[in-house]
Amino acid sequence: MAAPSVTIGVLALQGAFREHLRALSEFEGVSALPVRTKEQLATVDALVIPGGESTTMGLVAERSGLLEELRAMTRARQKPVFATCAGLIMLAQRAQHEKTGGQPLLGGLDVVVDRNFFGTQLQSFEATMDVRLPGDEAASTCHAVFIRAPAILEVGIRVEVLATLPVDKSPRPLEKPCIVAARQGPFLVTAFHPELTADRRWHAYFVDQVRATKG
């Protein structure tokens, strides 16, 4: 039986949305669409919130009238969401080191994130991290790109950790491995940018989750 066709939107207000659209277009049976309005949001089966500048994305969404629609969707867990880097910050229940005046958060994911845990744009880096995706028989590794990246400091009891950055791979001192990918129900989040590498396992995993909810 053929896998069900799905439509996945990519929030296209700012940031690396084109790279996600390109990655998703590689999967058979997936229609990838940019989302800029609440009308477009209503037509998709799932949503990707890309990396970029979380404060800017939140403010643009607020001005366009999309923020409350997004917030209602994530807090009710109505659709699967894949959030990367800045998207992780937006989806978190709480963020540390926000800009002065705060920033619009969507909430829905029971984690605490540190907004710029790994420093500034100049401190961006690449590293190999430890991964355990559901369905994998054993732990594996994955090369990842971190750009002004956040980190997950705390997770709720229903949050499953999927990837950690080893202490010896971090550009800043760590007391223990740092959480850089997780899932909770329909939500998948990464602190890094999977769309910037040729490794499609994260997009493939998300596509499978979307198909499971539809099929």
Characterization of the model:
By secondary structure, the protein is α/β, with parallel strands linked by helices. It has one domain: Rossmann fold (3-Layer(aba) Sandwich). It has a 9-stranded mixed beta sheet. It has a 3-stranded mixed beta sheet with strand order 5-6-9. α1 links the parallel β1 and β2. The longest helix has 14 residues. It is globular. The chain starts with 5 loop residues before the first strand and ends with a helix. It catalyses: L-glutamine + H2O = L-glutamate + NH4(+). Belongs to the glutaminase PdxT/SNO family. GO terms for molecular function: glutaminase activity; lyase activity. Its EC number is 3.5.1.2. This is glutaminase.
Please supply descriptive tags for the structure shown above.
Rossmann fold, 6 helices, 31% strand, three-stranded mixed sheet, 215 residues
